[in-house]
Amino acid sequence: MVRLGFIIGFIALLGALLSGLAAYRVHDQELALDRIALARAIDVHASLVQDRLTERELLARVASGLFRTPSVIKPNMLEPLRSAIYAFKTDFVVAGWIARLKPNELTAAQAAIGGAGFPNPKIRTFDDKPINPAEITQPIDVLLDLEPRSDETKALPGRSYDQDQVRSAMLTRARLEKRSVASDPIPLLRGNGPVGVIVAAPVIPEGATEPAGFVTFSYELASLMLTNDDMSLFSVALRDPRKEGGELVANDQGIVSTRMTTADGPTPSATRTVSFGGRDWQLGYYAKTNSARRAEQTAIIVAAIGFAITAMVCGLFGYVAYNNLRLSREIQVRIGFERRLTAVIDELNHRVKNILAVIQSIVTRTLRHGSDIDVARELLIGRIHAMSNVVSLLSESQWQGVKLKGLFEARAIPHADRIAVTGPDIAVSARAAQSLSLLFFELASHSDEGLSLVGKHPHITASWTVTGEGAGEVFHFRWEELNTSEATRRPDSDFGLILLDRVAPEALGGTAKRYFTDASYVYELTAPMETVVDMTERDRTDKISAPVRPAR
């Protein structure tokens, strides 16, 4: 009996020790998993919010760059930009054109507002109080046009925002700093309207030092913050820049309210800072569940089970050991997955930033050197279509490269039906594909669109060969437009010349030359194959796309 009691006591003690150890391990592991999941979800959310804000600010800058101020005050100023701004994003509440008017321009502005069909063309304050033009001695900012037009928004043109503290401060800063600026949170459209922010981009005419006005976009705050539903791990609050200790929160219906933080109130689990409109915004993240309490409850349950089944200590020990091993492997898999996901996001950010930089360069150079806005618009749309085509091809191949012949599809370049393509079926890298796609578009878009000297359309041949072996392989590309002369071919644009002579060769580490023969126009490009087919880029893509395997 003594021996049995000793064995039972030993089993009971061993069961208690094992149960306590299991409870301790489960507590730490549950707490670690919850913290990792919450931190990762917060980082992903903050990154998405920053990307969303960057897109909205880019829209304002592009719209102000495309805007052309007339020599006289005209209605419907946003008409030429309507298709462009809706093509980018359609979640803005209202887009507006705020002109900076001199005192002698107020009468003409009233006539223009009335002629555009707005019901109240009188120049007035932001709260609809009339303004006597004779009393104005300094330029004022007046809303002249907006999109979209509805019964609610049509009453807004004619308002001056010089006495509106929030909008006036935003426009003054945008005018002085000559860049896009965001306002403080403010009710949109009306006093009890949805809370949001306004971003204003100054429109500075060529050769001028002061802006002629501002292109503005208003956004609801709830959509910018990407507020979460009931299934999310946290709730999001925006620190109110208007008052110390204030926060702006949005419910599931997108209704924004203000609350004040207190010293004894809940504190955010984490804070993140995002940039928008030339200022920093701080987001506070509040966890919806108490990770420590849940981990303690889980540990108590495990301990209770262990104390209740002391007679089966061996089975309990095996179960705990197996459970610990499973949990450890899950943690390792999750950590590996988090690292892989971080690498994928970093790679995606790198590629997206590269594409955005190329598009920004295309837009800037096309509009800077386009003497005819119609020609510049066609070239801009075509160049962006060329970039879109190559990105689609890269996405279809999981960024493993693009078949060179696929860059000559009719959806990517003009006159594709007149191009005879010959050459080995090689797959070029993502970087080379982007440069070659723009290069082919520039060559095709400037080919002769009329009749040549012999009364025929030019016949185009695009061919390439690969010479050499091993590390000495060289890529040779030749473009020839037959039945074309220097007198009949449309001259290349400044951007096209830079792309043909410098950008494309330098991107591929090669050289290029162009010249006219007696009956054709020729462009030749030579580059080493190791830059055309970038194996390091392909290896990096294979690495981050490989499945995550649990550690052994």
UniProtKB/TrEMBL annotation:
<dbReference type="InterPro" id="IPR042240">
    <property type="entry name" value="CHASE_sf"/>
</dbReference>
<keyword id="KW-0547">Nucleotide-binding</keyword>
<protein>
    <recommendedName>
        <fullName>histidine kinase</fullName>
        <ecNumber>2.7.13.3</ecNumber>
    </recommendedName>
</protein>
<keyword id="KW-0808">Transferase</keyword>
<keyword id="KW-0472">Membrane</keyword>
<keyword id="KW-0597">Phosphoprotein</keyword>
<dbReference type="Pfam" id="PF07536">
    <property type="entry name" value="HWE_HK"/>
</dbReference>
<keyword id="KW-0812">Transmembrane</keyword>
<feature type="transmembrane region" description="Helical">
    <location>
        <begin position="299"/>
        <end position="322"/>
    </location>
</feature>
<feature type="domain" description="CHASE">
    <location>
        <begin position="129"/>
        <end position="225"/>
    </location>
</feature>
<dbReference type="InterPro" id="IPR006189">
    <property type="entry name" value="CHASE_dom"/>
</dbReference>
<keyword id="KW-0418">Kinase</keyword>
<keyword id="KW-0067">ATP-binding</keyword>
<dbReference type="GO" id="GO:0004673">
    <property type="term" value="F:protein histidine kinase activity"/>
</dbReference>
<dbReference type="GO" id="GO:0016020">
    <property type="term" value="C:membrane"/>
</dbReference>
<dbReference type="InterPro" id="IPR011102">
    <property type="entry name" value="Sig_transdc_His_kinase_HWE"/>
</dbReference>
<keyword id="KW-1133">Transmembrane helix</keyword>
<dbReference type="GO" id="GO:0007165">
    <property type="term" value="P:signal transduction"/>
</dbReference>
<dbReference type="GO" id="GO:0005524">
    <property type="term" value="F:ATP binding"/>
</dbReference>
<dbReference type="Pfam" id="PF03924">
    <property type="entry name" value="CHASE"/>
</dbReference>
